[in-house]
Amino acid sequence: MPSSKTSRTVEVPHRTGPVSNSLAASRLGTWSIIFFTVAAAAPETVVGGGAVSGFAVSGVNGIPVGYLAVALVLGLFAVGYVTMARHVENAGAFYAYIAKGLGRVPGTAAGGVAVLAYTMVQISLIGGFGVGAADFLRQVGGPDLPWWLFAGLGLGMVGLLGLLRIDVNGRVLGVLLIAEIAVILFYDFAFLTDPAEPGVSLTTLNPAQLGTGAAGVILVIAFTGFIGFENSTVLAEEARDPRTVSRATYLSLVVIGGLYGFSTWAMTVATGPEHIVAQAEEHSTELLFALASDRLPAGLVTTGSALYVTSLFAGMLSFHHVCARYFFALGREGIGPRALAATSSRTSAPLAGSLAQSALTVLVVGLFAVTGWDPVTYLFFWGASGGALGVLLLVTATSMAVVGYFLRVPAPGHGIWRTLLAPGSAALVLGGVLFLTIRSFGTVLGVPPGDPAAWVLPGAYLAVVLAGLGWGAVLRARYPDSYARIGMGARSITIRRSEELIDAG
């Protein structure tokens, strides 16, 4: 149990026994962090899956401009986000930002929301990977094997890599990501050089598309594709310096936004702007490869299908690291079980957090395998959509937290634009997107009006927020030492060890 005794600060070593309570510093450069953030976004999965589903669900062809609009909004958000990153070095990024900017009790609630949101995204990708790998094996003439077998194999590989050095994982993600983006751009070139009628048209990039009644659905679907760009600050403790995080965040947004906007527009050129919705409804997630097969050799289409599967794997791996680090951060600072703060003495990876995330995934995948529930609709699509809602909630709250932090903490070197105007504007815009998301969430899930799913998933976040606020209040009243560590990052270990020495003495 957390100690309630008052304590003084005593510097003590960070390592005791076989585990460490701090992550390895200075292992990740700008490009390694970009590989993690862009791989989490899973570009080919978004272009070939999420965007196509967006065309079909929304019934409008304005998805490309939606990606560009969200990129601009998140660019505005990133101004304050990376500015505050110089003052917050914590593997539980959103949780720590909100704790420092809005208070420790809201920060505790944010920690619960982050764990739920990122776990939903990571597990949804496991389901998508299992189905995608099984489909690909059948496509190349292999046996018809159950999806959960491939999900289990993918989970085992991710669990193993999650225990290795973070920079090793960065190189794995880099190789997969470069190959994936190269194939997407090759497809785009083929689409633009062989357009359908009426030729190369910019209709789907017209901002007026966002003035229609489907604007909410367009923005929600587009935002889902960006989940992961914010993970640069989750890796801040392992980055070489704060500027590394800033550069990686901005470059990741440019890569993701530019690729999504350009590639989805290229698909509308290949089908014709007026036919993209019908084609998306007919071919579903096979549309990208159906269009490519009409223009490119079969080998390149097969390669693209294989990279679609590896795109899902890269996303699984990246989000596994994010989830593990959130578990680690919450355990280290006394919000969750302290055992979650254990790291490997050999690699400094968050050992307990990684194992906890793997165990959760096994339970959920096992439940779907036993019950026979549809893994595509209920695990992959609904899981990703539910996770996106949680991340949007966190991004909005973090924008407000940046404003709250700099109103209290003078930052003369940053300027009012970076500390107040940009994050304040982002909070207003993101708040509007969040409102539209909740209002149209049933449409996003593809369920009829009145379906319980439209409010159960948002309701789950409300329950987590209320529980987090309650637990934060308990920590404040009964365990003030643990409460004081909330959001402090690696510094919380020094304080905790000080308490332990005083208690022992």
UniProtKB/TrEMBL annotation:
The transmembrane residues are 33-57, 63-84, 105-125, 145-164, 171-190, 210-229, 250-268, 306-328, 349-373, 379-407, 419-441, 453-475
Subcellular localization, as worded in the UniProt entry: Membrane
State the annotated membrane topology for this chain.
Answer: Multi-pass membrane protein
> Which key words tag this protein in UniProt?
Membrane, Transmembrane, Transmembrane helix
Matching entries from Pfam families are given as:
AA_permease
Q: Which GO terms describe its cellular component?
A: membrane
- Gene3D superfamilies, A to Z: Amino acid/polyamine transporter I
Domain (Amino acid permease/ SLC12A) spans 58-386
Please tell me whether the keyword Heme is annotated for this protein: no
GO biological process annotations for this chain's record?
A: transmembrane transport
Q: Which InterPro entries match?
A: AA-permease/SLC12A_dom (IPR004841), APC_superfamily (IPR050367)
Question: Where is it mainly found?
Answer: membrane
- Protein name, please? Amino acid transporter
Which species does the entry assign this protein to? Saccharopolyspora gloriosae
Lineage start: Bacteria, Bacillati, Actinomycetota, Actinomycetes, Pseudonocardiales
